[in-house]
Amino acid sequence: EIVLTQSPGTLSLSPGERATLSCRASQSVSRSYLAWYQQKPGQAPRLFIYGASSRATGIPDRFSGSGSGTDFTLTISRLEPEDFAVYYCQQYDTTPLTFGGGTRVDIK
Amino acid sequence: QLQLQESGPGLVKPSGTLSLTCSVSGVSITNTHYYWAWIRQPPGEGLEWIGTVYYTGRTYYNPSLTSRLSISVDTSKNQFSLNLSSVTASDTAVFYCARHYGDDPFDIWGQGTMVTVSS
User: Least crowded by CB within 10 Å, which of A4, A16, B60, B107?
Assistant: First the structure.
């Protein structure tokens, strides 16, 4: 099983600041089959990034994903008020499909 | 527009069986490109993939749940279902159904349904 470790657990930032979220895998995620989701309270997760770096439909370009192998990053270039949420990474390379523990981005 | 909707009891007794159904609208569950999944999230915790079913009935289960898990599909009703037996309080969670396209991640999710295991 591929274990995904996200850091930091919580990121406290102000609107307009840059956010950098990390996702580290216990073994290589081949084909860059790594996704990022955003989840707001009381809502289902929403797919934001797939293939490590491709934005899903309707996702603004201030969100970018990068990385390969075991180290992946989600960057939000300038935080907007609606971006404060929890972000999860997920690998879909091998079963069992696994998620990271999440990074909460909250308002400083 | 594709929509997924979970339904089922919100309360299950310990040692009982948790049964949920996901109704799919806007697309045929027999579309050969799509796989249909269950994911759960205990209160205040992260996400756990439970398992996936293809319209043919082929299933892929999380090994941690295999001994208690059954996922099936009903193409006549455009639905798929989850049965989790011998539940305990640790199975209390919001359960989501979701779609993924072939090898892709989960792109469409239901709104989720809360299931509490308690006597």
Answer: A16
